[in-house]
Specification:
heterotrimer, A mainly alpha (420), B mainly alpha (114), C mainly alpha (232), A: 420 residues, mainly alpha, 16 helices, 64% helix, disordered C terminus, C: 232 residues, 7 helices
């Protein structure tokens, strides 16, 4: 898109506009999404506790409640304890918010609809979501309150521990797909729902549940919300916060819930591919023209967002169903259960793909397809074949000391004009 | 403006690495808090890492044939892993010291002094 | 006038953040502030890695270094940051010696980095016409994207690269293969006879795995002895 715009505008302006547009689209998730998820949380928790939840504000389902909540929080006074470290106290919520927002950068919302397609997308999202913990820790320290500090210490211990099983679980689908590029992982799972990686073999099926447990812990949700623990620590790390900064913490929390649910949707549940390949049946693919392809992608976006919302709702459901764990139980779940199970699942998935390279289980897609997708980045561009042929043949012959190829490369880079 | 129209080369990265390295060395020398010394070590390792990545990068120099290639990136990965291991051990030692002497001041760790 | 090279702009941005906060770590006396500055400095370093085309190393820097090691470090800071320990001041004499040391190192390292002329400028970027003539998609020098339009740092597609940058650097798979023993980027450097037994970084990889295990056991041992000392 930026390349197309660059023909009409200054290149830097085109890139700036496209960048701002993408950032604006992504901002919808933590801002509007958070309000929507708060409403879901209130309704679901009310139903679980045999209440009605918000009903008065704006129609039957209280859907305006979220706007009223937002307005109330923005107009609240921004308090700061006298003992607090002023700079860190003010900065902390925004660190959390930035981290959870930046994770969406590499998340593909539909086939190719991604702000920045990264070859290491999976690790990038994990890394950036993991940075959210700094906001919590700094808030806990800067508040100069015992409750906050306790919450922050628990959070630090918990997040460092849970990154280990989380990383191991994520590696299992990566191993099967053969790439860390999230767009390619999504494309591999095209077709009916039997192609989803969760149904690839029994090991991925169990891996998903371990992943979801660890993801819930790493985004600090009940039953692992020890940093908050309102029954013991008043409100944990955000005890001293009010108004917009408090809201920022919550937007960060819901934003990263969305991010880890999105990662689960792509890694295990086919991403933007629906349970049945309806877009293929209707011919809504880019092969049938850009407009039809765009409509197909829009349906894919709908699929993906629905899967994410389902993931978040599932977390809400778990939160209001299970009691909170103690800190030693949290560590026990991580070190005694999640990590060994994830390790065994990793080994199992390795052996499964080694013994059944054609894919056992429900999976029907031939693996040649998969290799075609994952090897695509390594393929040579068709247009430049004529010019590069002599050199590639030299490379193929493996000139013993590599002099020919090296010379060629140097010559090419030296003759390339531009840049001076 | 001249600065912004030229492409960056290995040298630019080397200077950044040197600044981080020097900051780390000074940090290790002047900090009395054991954790401050640990932070200095992290800075030194990062300065070295920047150099490895810069030498391994193919497009930061005109004679790409002489770049380290993947070697630079692989070694910087090893450095990152070693830094994690080193931090874990150093932290365990520091916390033990803190438990026994209730201080993290490295100048107070002089029991073995003759 | 030449157009602004956005790769350079982003380089200076990240370099300024990395160096500025690196120096701030030294100057600051509050240990918690130091930890915060260190986060920013190392995060900006990850940005520099992305700019150098090492996206896998950059992600690893964020995941292991910033997300793991520094959280551990801050954990230690919060356990020990009480009262007078938060800011331990250094005497003036120490500062003078340290500044002398810094001056010597700077006088040695910075000129050393600038001496080799081929290090001073980057690889020339291809013009748009040249790229379009080769049938690849148009690539502009300027980009606001995090990873610049650069060829792979030493991996497969670079083999038939004639100055045309690929859309993305691809390093994860070549690095993984390198750790397992196959060096896809340096195949031509190895004599034919040695190629089947090429080991790459397999041995260091195994050594570092065992090393991590040893560290795990050692750290657990230290933590255990601490608890028994407390009970006594």
């Amino acid at each position: 898109m930026a390349e197309a715009l660059a023909n009409y505008l200054w290149p830097w302006l085109a890139y700036l506009l496209v960048g701002l547009l993408q950032a604006g689209l992504l901002l919808i998730v933590p801002l509007v999404g958070a309000m929507f998820f708060v409403w879901i949380e209130r309704k679901v928790s009310a139903r679980i506790q045999d209440r009605l939840g918000p009903t008065r504000c704006g129609g039957k389902f209280g859907w305006l409640q979220l706007l009223a909540d937002g307005l109330k929080l923005i107009t609240k006074e921004d308090l700061r304890p006298g003992e607090a470290d002023a700079v860190l106290f003010r900065l902390a919520p925004y660190i959390s918010l930035c981290a959870s927002f930046a994770a969406l950068l590499a998340l593909p919302f539909s086939n190719g609809w991604v702000a920045q397609e990264l070859d290491v997308g999976v690790f990038f999202i994990l890394a950036v979501v993991g940075l959210e913990v700094f906001g919590v820790i700094l808030a806990g320290y800067a508040s100069a309150s015992k409750w906050s500090l306790f919450g922050a210490m628990r959070e630090a211990a918990q997040v460092v521990s849970y990154e280990v099983p989380l990383g191991m679980c994520v590696v299992v689908p990566v191993l099967i797909a053969g790439t860390m590029n999230l767009v390619t992982i999504g494309q591999i799972q095209a077709g009916p729902f039997t192609n989803w990686l969760i149904f690839h073999d029994p090991f991925t099926f169990i891996t998903f549940w371990v992943y979801f447990t660890c993801a819930t812990a790493s985004v600090n949700r009940a039953p692992f919300d020890l940093a908050e623990a309102e029954s013991e620590l008043v409100a944990g790390f955000h005890t001293e916060y009010s108004g917009f900064r408090w809201l920022a913490f919550f937007m960060a929390e819901y934003g990263s819930m969305f991010a880890v649910s999105g990662l689960a949707a792509i890694l295990f549940f086919g991403g933007w591919n629906g349970p049945l390949p309806i877009t293929d049946w209707l011919g809504l693919t880019p092969a049938h023209g850009p407009v039809l392809g765009w409509i197909g992608n829009l349906l894919g976006l709908l699929n993906f967002v629905l899967k994410c919302i389902f993931g978040v709702t599932f977390m809400v459901w778990v939160r209001w169903t299970l009691p909170r764990l103690r800190i030693d139980q949290v560590m026990q779940v991580c070190l005694k259960y999640c990590t060994p199970i994830a390790a065994v699942m990793f080994l199992g998935a390795t052996f499964w793909t080694y013994m059944l390279p054609g894919g056992g289980g429900l999976r029907s897609m031939p693996y040649a397809n998969r290799y075609a997708l994952t090897a695509a980045p390594y393929a040579k561009p068709v247009g430049s074949a004529a010019e590069t042929k002599p050199k590639t043949s030299a490379e193929k012959n493996f000139a013993p000391n590599g002099n020919d190829a090296t010379k060629d490369r140097v010559a090419v880079t030296q003759t390339a004009p531009g840049g001076e | 403006m001249q600065l912004l129209t030229q492409s960056v080369g290995v040298s630019h990265f080397l200077v950044v690495g040197a600044v981080l390295f020097i900051a780390g060395v000074v940090c290790m020398a002047v900090k009395r808090n054991a954790l401050g010394v640990l932070m200095g070590i992290e800075l030194v390792l990062n300065g070295a890492n920047i150099n490895f990545v810069a030498f391994g990068s193919n497009f930061l120099r005109s004679d790409t044939a002489y770049s380290l290639g993947l070697d630079g990136q692989l070694i910087s990965l090893f450095v990152i892993v070693l830094a994690a291991a080193e931090a874990a051990v150093a932290l365990a030692i520091t916390l033990n010291f803190y438990n026994n002497h209730s201080t993290v001041d490295v100048d107070r760790a002089d029991e073995l002094k003759g | 006038m030449n157009p602004i090279n956005w790769h350079t702009v982003f380089f200076y941005l990240y370099a300024l953040v990395a160096c500025g906060f690196g120096v701030a770590v030294v100057i600051s006396t509050n240990i918690v502030r130091m930890a915060l500055y260190l986060i920013f400095s190392l995060g900006a370093t990850a940005g520099l890695f992305f700019l150098a085309g090492a996206d896998f190393v950059g992600s690893m820097q964020l995941l292991i270094y910033v997300g793991g090691t520094l959280v551990l470090l801050i954990f230690g800071v919060m356990l020990t940051a009480q009262g007078p320990l938060i800011s331990l001041r250094t005497s003036g004499g120490d500062w003078i010696v340290a500044m002398l040391l810094a001056g010597c190192l700077a006088a040695l390292l910075v000129p050393a980095g600038l001496t080799v002329s081929s290090w001073n400028t980057g690889r020339p970027a291809p013009t748009t016409e040249q790229v379009a003539g080769n049938g690849a998609q148009p690539v502009l020098v300027s980009t606001t994207e995090k990873t610049p339009q650069i060829p792979l740092a030493g991996g497969l597609p670079d083999v038939d690269n004639n100055g045309i940058p690929d859309k993305q650097p691809i390093t994860a798979a070549p690095i993984g293969l390198g750790l397992l023993g196959a060096r896809v980027d340096k195949l031509e450097n190895v004599p034919e006879a040695l190629r089947p037994g090429m080991s790459g970084y397999l041995l260091p990889f195994e050594v570092i795995s065992v090393h991590l295990l040893v560290v795990l056991v050692g750290a657990a041992y230290l933590a255990r002895s601490k608890r028994s000392a407390m009970n006594r």
